[in-house]
Amino acid sequence: MSAAISDTVVIFTEDADWHTRRLKAAIEAEGFGVAVLSLNDCGFAIGETAHGLLLPGFGDQLPAAAFIRLIANGTTEQITARLGLLHALRELGVKVMNDARAVERCVDKSMTSFLIGKAGLPTPRTFVGEHRASMQALVDEAPGDMVLKPLFGAQGRGIKRVPPRAALPEPEKVGAVYYLQEFVAQKPGDAFEDWRVFVVGARVVAAMLRRSPRWITNIHQGAVGAPAPRNERAYDLAIRATAAVGADYAGVDLIEAADGSFTVLEVNSMPAWKGLQKTTDIDIAATMAGHLVRALEPVPAL
């Protein structure tokens, strides 16, 4: 039993917030209906529906496409099932943006760092391990500060700067996995700053500098965004980092070192863009909606 394709795009999220409203309006402007669903309310219905999935409001039809805005926290089993459903949509031929493979690669910072390094892109030396003693030895021998980050985390929460020979927290404080990255020194100044470059469809659509008196420069941690000057080196790295994780769109975090070189810190597969939108006249949601719709167009025959 084959499943028909509807003319409705589903946005998976947990909150009909500013981002969801902007994205919904942009997709509707492209001529599609929009359904806003939580992955928590979806599941599998093998042998029951034509496609084997449970998608409230779709019945035996499949969505025209799916946009992943947010995936809620949950148990390992819950997260596995939600990602499994996204994998299933891709297997059924539904365009998923970003699909589960890219989400998994970006949620796990160790895999993000590995793929960035594998692609030959500049990124800080990074160490990931479960044993406190061996990770402590790396800190004790480090030539400078290191940054301890949660393996799963966003918006600058839980990040700590660790000087050489400082004691690492107990394993239960870090989810039993230590993710350590070398601290990148910047040019002396009154503020710390990094770059957030927003890539859609292998093209940079906007970029901002995030400035803060503290070394953590996330907008959610009090940093202020400002328009970034056009910089082809930064843009090229962001585009290549997005491709390295297999994402259609991404928010790429770069830092400019004291010698003027750029380093890729992270790639975010479900980035917020409200702060970035304040620094540009480009409608970021419309750009993403346009890319999604173009991906649904048939490829012309040669």
TrEMBL record:
* This protein's GO CC annotations: cytoplasm
Show the coiled coil region(s). none
Keywords, in A-Z order: ATP-binding, Ligase, Metal-binding, Nucleotide-binding
Question: For this protein, what is any one GO molecular function term?
Answer: ligase activity, forming carbon-nitrogen bonds
> What InterPro entries does the record point to?
ATP-grasp, ATP-grasp_RimK-type, Rp_bS6_RimK/Lys_biosynth_LsyX
Using the record's annotation, list all stretches that form the ATP-grasp domain.
113-293
Listed transmembrane segments: none
Q: Give the matching PANTHER family.
A: BETA-CITRYLGLUTAMATE SYNTHASE B-RELATED (PTHR21621:SF0), RIBOSOMAL PROTEIN S6 MODIFICATION PROTEIN (PTHR21621)
The family database entries (NCBIfam families) matched by this protein are listed as: rimK_fam
Specify the protein name: RimK family alpha-L-glutamate ligase
Q: Which organism is it from?
A: Ancylobacter pratisalsi
